[in-house]
Amino acid sequence: MYTQFLGNYLLQRGIVTQEQLFNAMSRLSQTHIKLGTIAIHESLMTAKEVDECLYVQTREDKRFGEIAVNRGYLTEEQVNDLLTKQTPDYILLGQNLVEDGVFSYEELERILFDYKNDTELYDLSLDVENQEAVEAIISKFFIMAEMPVEETNVMYLELMFNSLIRFVGEDFSPLTPMVLDEYPITFGVSQKIASDKNYLTHIDCDRETAIAFASRYAKEEFLEFDEYVIAALEDFLNLHNGLFIVNVSNTTSQTISLEPPEIAAEGILTGPNKVVDFPVAYPFGTIHLIICF
User: Fold this and answer.
1) ∠ CA 110-113-116 to the nearest 5 degrees?
2) Three-state SS string across 108-129, please?
3) Three-state secondary structure call for residue 195
4) Are the C-beta atoms of 100 and 123 separated by less than 8 Å?
5) What is the C-alpha separation between 211 and 23, in angstroms, rounded?
6) Which domains occur in the chain, in start order?
7) Fewest Cβ atoms closer than 10 Å to its Cβ: which of 152, 173, 191, 219?
8) Do residues 16 and 100 lie in contact, with contact meaning Cβ atoms separated by under 8 Å?
9) CA quadruple 199, 212, 154, 255: dihedral positive or negative?
């Protein structure tokens, strides 16, 4: 999930465009991590040292690790250790953007440092997907949205991102959340969750985006906006919220229930306190995850 959060970080700061980001994300499954990228991530080599070794590699028929050892940047043991490292996808994303010429290794080194700093991940292991780190980043989303960082709120959004990755695709980036007095509906599906406090969740998008989203979710190509597209959106929201209810029941003492999903083709969404829009950009369009409190 770090990949999506890094994508949001890069977009927010104007470091990449959506086109550049999605192009790099689309190649993640075909990308192999390079030794120099891992060495930067592990703080064993600087970007300048990596660039130097890459330059030498274009003129000598030697492996990167061999060059790094010969120049005293790495030991044989460190090379062997780096080759067995499990590296998170967000490092692959950075590597792809370097190869696309969006920024240099030196800039990537600074970006990763600032990213870890801004998301307060100093003391958390980033070698694997870390539950505490994901929760920390999501909590910052709620703080930005001026919402209380409650356990169920964090759980809901974390599960939503996981549901998007699992059922629709990982090539998305969450955009900056917005707090609204009301939300004008384009098209979508809504579902009420009743618990200690009632709230409404809504997925909103234009019809072309709905067709693409439903096609991915149903693993079937829909060519027009029809009842099958609507049914796929309803099923996704109902499945996600059903998983959420199970998780809440297993971890808290709350009594929680779920009403059937409803089609929302027009109107205004309002909540007793706040309406929060969590936009998520996919290559095919942007969907809006709306939570009404």
Assistant:
1) 145
2) HHHHHHHHHHHCCCCCCCCCCC
3) coil
4) no
5) 21
6) 2-121 (no CATH), 133-292 (3.40.1550.10)
7) 219
8) no
9) positive
83-92, 114-123, 126-135: range with lowest mean pLDDT: 126-135
Total-model pTM: 0.70
Cα dihedral 43, 98, 3, 276, rounded to 10, equals: 120
Structure confidence by residue, pLDDT tens digits, 125-151? 433 345 565 666 677 767 766 667 777
pLDDT (mean) for 88-115: 89
Given a cut of 90, is residue 264 above it in pLDDT?
no
How far apart are the C-alpha atoms of 260 and 245, rounded to whole Å?
Answer: 13
CA dist 28 and 45 (Å) reads: 23
| Average per-residue pLDDT for the chain | 84
Closest among 44, 64, 43, 45 to 54, alpha carbons compared? 64
